[in-house]
Amino acid sequence: MNIDDRTRRYSHAKDGQEGLANPGLRFNEPTPIAPEGLGGLIRDHFSNGRLFATVGWHQGLVNISYWGRQHLGGPAFFQGSLEGAWTKLFRSCAGLGDKRYYLSLSDTRLYPFGLSGNSHVAGVDFKQEILLLPDALVQRFRVLRNPKKLPVFIEMFHQEHICRVNRANRTWSDFALNVRARAMVCRCTDTNPNGNRVDQSLAQQGMVMARDVARATTWIGLGCNSPIRSRPTHQGFKLYLTSKPMAQGEACFFVVFAESQEELERRTRYLSAHALRECDALIANYQQRLTQRPRIDVGNKVLNSALAQYPEAIHFMKIPDRPGAVRATQAGYFVWGWDGMMPMVPCTLANEPDYTAAILRFFQETCHPKLGLPHQFTTAFTLKLKAPIPAQSQYITGLYQYLATTGNLALAREVLPTCKFILDQCRKNLVRDTGLVAGSALWPDFPEAMEENGHDISSLNNSLVYQALRAMEYIALACSRPALAKECRNWAVQLRASFVKYLFDQEHGYFISSCSSRNFSPRKHYCCQAILWLTPFARELVAHDPERIAAFMNRHLRSARCLLSLPRWDTAWMADGNQLGSSFPAADSFYLNMQKITANTRGLKAWLGDLQWFWQYHTAPEAFTPEAENENLFGPDNHGCKQLQALSTWYAGLYNGAAGMDFDHEGITFTPWGDIPVNIRGLVLRGKRLDITIAGTGEHIKTLQLNGRTLPAGSRKIAWNMLRSPYSKLELLRTHQPPKHPVIVRADGLAITQVSTKPGHLAASVTGAMSGEIIIQTQAGAKVMVDGEAFPQARASATGTLGVPFGRTGTMTLHILQ
Fold it and tell me: Rounded to 5 degrees, what angle do the CA atoms 369, 375, 380 make?
């Protein structure tokens, strides 16, 4: 199934638009394979921990960067050339007799942490690898076949003075032999004594001077696992390193980064003996993790590869010596706040709940006593930029999703002080009696470009506050804080009403970006991320008019390859020349859920088409900027980029979108829609292993089975306590045929039991430790009985549902007659 072809018409792409940058990767297995070289890619980025590097189309290195202790402006240490291969940045080749050969790779595997390919030259078969360890780049050569038994050595060319990155506040020493290190060693010192101003943006007012690391020295070693001889040229223009002939049929060069001379010497000595072993372990551990994660099949090889690789790309952005800290992109940014919290959901869904817990602990440990969770971190993990207080509610939403899928209340009690701190700070910024919280928008970087002036109520921010309040109602009760739970419940009711009253534009049927906190005057800009959808409770903010909201997104925000940040007719379009005219992958969760609520299969296919197109370029972008209608002629903005927000949102989107799954502390809710087959094998939730199969076509459930037993047809929710065995099999069959009885389609945060149906009738018991809303699919004119009394409720004709509020704790009996 080629989703891209099937959605071309809907997503406004024209035949013949592709062609100037067409990669040819193969996706027959989780790891993408380039038939020759990089498979038509202009370049690709790779990372591991603090280290990242870029390889160009000519198969040579074009960048090596390392996040040590230096200031945030100094990660790049070595820069080559993408234009051609003349510039030699640690360029390695194979020597046969008195001749040297660059290896032209074939069947090149593109890992998140490097590449591995085969080559045949002068009658000898080689395997060459460029692999990143957390602190070292290794170039490995292995002889696979040498029938003439030619002597084989490896050689490296490096133009030291051309390739090292020079800055006004940076000093270098030249590479020189260090006997103790068994390597060539140099050092690089970065200074930044005065800090820098960061208050140019409205969002950073009051942060006049941000202190960064004042001085740091990075030590760099260049070595080999075989004895080498070095030969510099006149004035150090080029350095040659040549190994002795391979004794065991393989050899490697390595470039190591360290923060002290002693650390470097220990590491280079170790790698001289064990670099090959570490490389073997790197690949073996990667292969093992692929088997331990859920195996996902959506009937499309490109997407299957992407969904297998997204969690691995995130894995190699983690900083090993600081658990919970994840860099914001594979090649670039260090650790940011909201970027760094985005993996909390996908890590859990990739069978890594312990790392989600590490993220929650990391942000609690680094929480500033006055400013809260940092928006940007220095390399010392101190606050560089502050985050808007209401947007910090994202932390609580991540905790809730962790609790929903693990049930681990011990962690909730551990991080409860940070949750309470965030709510306390939000409380200080309440706007009158609306429940809304004032503060500059989390996005874009310059909210003043969207008419914000320091007296603002942001829709994005308050969507997070609302979800956090709904989550905290449960968390507080579970942690024996009933007064806090009651406050959060009442606050959420107030905020929900005000969110629609002040931030929803009735004329356009969509949300505005912000309004004034002084007089509620609207700023009529229509952002794709008006709601940052991170929990099932976000649905409650759109329940008043889902059809118009979805229609607006499809008509005004959907483009050929992405969701636009703003409509092109919006007066803020490209007001900053950057973010306000690009895509914003983190907003895709809002888009997907709106398509799901309205059962718009075309929207799902358009989104999957985006993922497929980008992954064909081995990319999960920070953004895409389609200023021209045919911008996709040139491929993504940043070829090879893998950005944390996109990876996180898109992986979670498979579950919430394509699989139609929502998770709360009571269980899993399935929403059937579309015709995309979904098979998930080995998903671990609440310590139980699940295999999930979703098949058929349509927006109704024909059958939902647990371990071969058909579940009651009146509810789409599977309670956690129904998963009794260590392994369970869930099978959902979709259909276009509506049931002959009402169905409970959502009951977020609530338990549904004692479900019974017969034609035209549904009975169920609803239990909750928190308030909520039961959404029922039924025919027009249905009669609702709550605890034996009639309950008047209008039916939403667009979605065919009605809502019954559950505004208390305890149990409620429900009868629906249609």
Answer: 70
Crossing angle for the helix pair 482-503 and 459-478, to the nearest 10 degrees: 160
Q: What would the DSSP string read from start to end of 249-297? A: SEEEEEEEEESSHHHHHHHHHHHHHHHHHHHHHHHHHHHHHHHHSPEEE
Phi and psi dihedrals of 272, rounded to 5?
A: -60, -30
Which letter, b or e, does each residue of 666-680 get, where b requires 16 or more Cβ atoms within 10 Å of its Cβ?
bbbbbbbbbbbbbbb
- Nearest CA-CA partner of 815 in 756, 759, 773, 775: 756
Closest CA to 654 of 622, 620, 626, 628: 620
Backbone angles phi, psi at 381, to 5 degrees: 65, 35
Strand order in the sheet with 514-516: 456-458, 514-516, 522-523
- Is 311-618+640-658 in CATH node 1.50.10.10? yes
**H helices of 373-408, where?**
394-406
Ramachandran angles phi, psi of 407, nearest 5°: 75, 15
- Cis ω for the linkage preceding 672 (within 30 of 0): no
Going by DSSP bridges, is the β-strand pair 727-735/688-696 parallel, antiparallel, or unpaired?
parallel
Query: What average pLDDT values come out for the chain (818 residues) when binned by 10 residues?
Result: 39 43 92 97 97 97 97 95 94 93 96 97 96 98 94 95 94 95 96 73 70 90 94 87 88 97 98 97 98 98 98 98 98 96 97 98 97 95 94 98 98 98 98 97 94 97 98 97 97 98 98 98 97 98 97 96 95 95 94 97 96 97 91 91 97 98 98 97 98 98 97 96 97 97 97 96 95 94 91 81 87 93
> Residue 752, SS3?
strand
How far is 68 from 645, CA to CA, in rounded Å?
Answer: 23
Give the Å distances, CA to CA, from 437 to 311, 396, 682: 34, 16, 41
Is residue 524 a contact partner of residue 512, using CB atoms and an 8 Å limit? yes
Give me the residue label for tokens 């590491």.
Answer: 267
- To the question of pTM greater than 0.90 for the whole model, the response is yes
Amino acid at 727: Y
Class of 33-188+219-292 per CATH?
mainly beta
> Cβ of 149: how many Cβ atoms within 10 Å?
7
Here the tokens at position 796 are 């939403």
The first and second tokens of residue 324, run together, are 């919970």
What residue segments make up the domains of the chain, in order of their start? 33-188+219-292, 311-618+640-658, 667-817
Residue 34's SS3 state is strand
